[in-house]
Amino acid sequence: MAKVKWGIISSAQIAIDQVIPAIKSSHNGEVYAISSGSGKEKDVAKQFSIPNTYDDHEKLLDDPEIDAVYIPLPNSLHKEWCVKAARKGKHILCEKPIALSENQLFDIIQACEENHVYFMEAYMYRFHSQHKLVKEMLEEGKIGDILSIHSVFHFTIDQPKKDIRMQAELGGGVTYDIGGYSVNVINYLLDSSPSTVYATALYEDVDTKITAVLEYENQITATIDSSFYGPMLHAYKIIGTKGVIEVPYAFRPDLNDDDGVIIIRNQTEEILHVKEKQYVNEVEHFAEVIQGKAVLDYTPSEVHRTLKTLEAIQQSAIKKRQVIL
């Protein structure tokens, strides 16, 4: 199969800064078109030499040449445009969270199944292999039995009044934004969902700080801690009966020259470096799935598991009580 032809739905900054450059750097994809409702599509197309522009997302979906779309619209619009894209026969890479409720996710899954297209939620960090190495170490008993996992992700929103992540009507809030990374990685490393959740939060128009304690099987405890207030910090630590594993550049190794670092402390200290471009890996993997050369490494069942956990965290924070999943 020839290169996958991508359509970019929106001129969002994440598309400009990360995903469009990643597709252009990939070996199996090309940016074929971009659409925008803000009138910026021609400027972005000129910047990246994108051959086709549309001033309406529907027009882009009607282009028969496009194989897949990347959707970085506000969270509240993800379900609508994922379903529309599926019905037009387009494969879908959608920014996280792909849905804001289980019902929304089920609608997306149904539309994709009925129209025989793939979808993937764009948790790009999953495509940096530092995490697979950590999981392998845990399975090998490198630090003994797991006792607890602690994950943090913080950064400061500089202009909150202009940021869609601070707008409730657009599906904003820290839990579904960066809190989702911690939930996703913990569920991935344990290959499980928590049995109970207890969370507390700070609120402005949306939740701006979230702290949660999650209980898993085998008496494993996990914590997540995220806010829109602190310095850029994205890391997790796994404590076992025989040692500790730390990943200090967990979710944005691109801010560390693409260098993922794994620190293992048991009898001695060992430091591993894994240098990869996670956004390029992400789009190349999804293109390989579309081409029939690979199976999805991040599956719809994992998307559901993360979303269900996030919903429980929000419910716990609002009701100020423990939630049983």
From TrEMBL:
Record keyword Oxidoreductase present: yes
Domain Gfo/Idh/MocA-like oxidoreductase N-terminal: from-to ranges: 5-122
Keyword terms: Oxidoreductase
UniProt keyword Oxidoreductase present: yes
Pfam families assigned: GFO_IDH_MocA, GFO_IDH_MocA_C3
Domain called GFO/IDH/MocA-like oxidoreductase: residue spans: 132-246
Family annotation (InterPro entries): Gfo/Idh/MocA-like_OxRdtase_N, Gfo/Idh/MocA_domain, GFO_IDH_MocA-like_dom, NAD(P)-bd_dom_sf
Annotated family: Belongs to the Gfo/Idh/MocA family.
Name of this chain's protein: Gfo/Idh/MocA family oxidoreductase
Origin species: Virgibacillus halodenitrificans
